[in-house]
Amino acid sequence: MDGDPDTNEMKSSEEMRSKFEDYNKNVAPEIKKRAFVTSMDAKSLYPSIKKSVAREAIVELVNKSDLTIKNVDYWEGAKYIAILCSAEEIREAGLSDIIPRRTTRATRQLTLNCLFTRGDNDKWIPGQDPDDAQKKMIISLVLCAANEEIMSNHIYKVGDILYRQSDGAPAGSEYAGIIARAVTRMFDSRYLRKTAERGLNVLMYGRYIDDIDQVIEKEFDEDDEKTTSEKFKAVANECCDNIVWEDDIPSGHPGAKLPILDMQVWLRDDGVLLYQHYEKPVSSKQVLSVRSAHSSQGKRAVHINEIVRRMLNCSPQLSWAEAVVPILEEYMRRMSKAGYSESYRHDVLTSAVNIYEKKLKDDADGTCPLNRPSPWLQKSRET
C-alpha cells in the first residue's frame, strides 16, 4: 500500500498541511465563500470492520493496484483457493476454469494439510493458465481466504477467560491496522465517487487513519455549517456496511477552530483555510528534562525539532507576533521548568528559527515545498 500513488491517505501533519495549501491556491475565490471545513471520524473502526467488507477491500486493493507482482507460485495459490473457497466464490471471481480439481471426489472436507503431503500434486487436475487479470484475482482470493481464517479465529483473553472473536478486525493484533488501512482506502474512493454523483462538492479531502479533514461546498445558499456537514456524513455512512462516521464542525469548539491532528483549522471570511499549532488539554506539558540520560546532542535535536514543528503548524498567513510567538514562548517556559538555562534555550530557539527560515526560502525559490505532499515524500524516500 505504500508503493501506489494514493493521495487521499495522509501519513503526517506535513502531508495534511500540503492539502490545506493546495486548497488555498487552487480553489476559486467565489467557491471558497461557499465552503465549510469539517471533520469525520469512524466510530470504533476496528471492531466495526466486518469480514465481508474486508473481503471487498482486499479485492479492490489488489485488482486496482498498478504494482507488478513477481515470484508467485500461482499453482499453489490455486490449490489453496480450491480448498478454502466455495464453488460460488470461485465462479463469481471468474476462475472456474483456472482453479484445479481433485482427481477423485473427497469423502471428507479437505484441509491445508493435504498441500504438504508428498505426491499430492498427482491428485489434482490442472486448470487453464491464468492471464494477468486472473493472476491478480488468484492473489485476491488467497488473501481473502487468509483474512477469513484470521478474522474468524482470533483468540483474546479477558481476565482468565479466553474468547474467540467471530467478526471485526482482530483486537490487539497488528493485522487490525493493516486490514483497516485497506478498508479506509476503499472508503475514500467510494465516498468521493458518491458525493460527486450526488452533486456534493468536496473541495479538499485528507484522511489520517480514520480521521478525515475536508473542505466542502454547501449545496444550497440557505444551508448552514451543520446542515452541510450532515449531508456529507449521510453519504459517508452509506459507503461501507457497519462502519459509522461521526462529524465535527468548528462551531462546536472554542474560537470556532476545529482540532485536526496537532493543529486547529478554520476558514477566514474569504474562505481561505488557516491553521495553528494545537495540543489537547489532557496532553502532557512536560518536555525532555535536562537531567535525562539522553545524549546532549539528542536532547538538543529533540527540542529543535519540537520548535520547528510548532512553527510549521502555523499558517504563514497568520501574524507571527499574535499566533506564533505565544506558542514559542510557552515552549520556552516548559524548557525552563525542565532545567535548561536561558543561554541554552536561546541557542535552541535561534537554531530552530534559522531552520524554519531556510524552509521558507527553499519554498520561495521552488527548491522544496514548505509542506511536502505525499508524492514528493514518496519520491524522496525512493531516492
Keyphrases for this structure?
single chain, 383 residues, alpha+beta, 2 domains, four-stranded antiparallel sheet, three-stranded antiparallel sheet, 46% helix
Task: Give a short synopsis of this structure.
By secondary structure, the protein is an alpha+beta fold.
Report the end-to-end length measured between terminal Cα atoms. 18 Å
Strand content: 5-15%
How many structurally independent domains?
A: 2
Question: How would you write the strand order of the largest sheet?
Answer: 6-7-1-8
How would you characterize this protein structure?
- The chain is of the alpha+beta class and 383 residues long.
- It has helices at residues 13-26, 29-32, 45-48, 51-64, 74-84, 87-92, 132-152, 174-197, 225-236, 296-312, 320-337, 342-365, 374-382; strands at residues 35-42, 101-102, 124-125, 154-158, 161-165, 202-208, 211-217, 245-248, 258-260, 263-267, 273-277.
- The strands form 4 sheets. A 4-stranded antiparallel sheet has the order 6-7-1-8, with helices on both faces. The chain has a 3-stranded antiparallel sheet with strand order 9-10-11. It has a two-stranded antiparallel ribbon with strand order 2-3.
- The radius of gyration is 26 Å and the shape is globular.
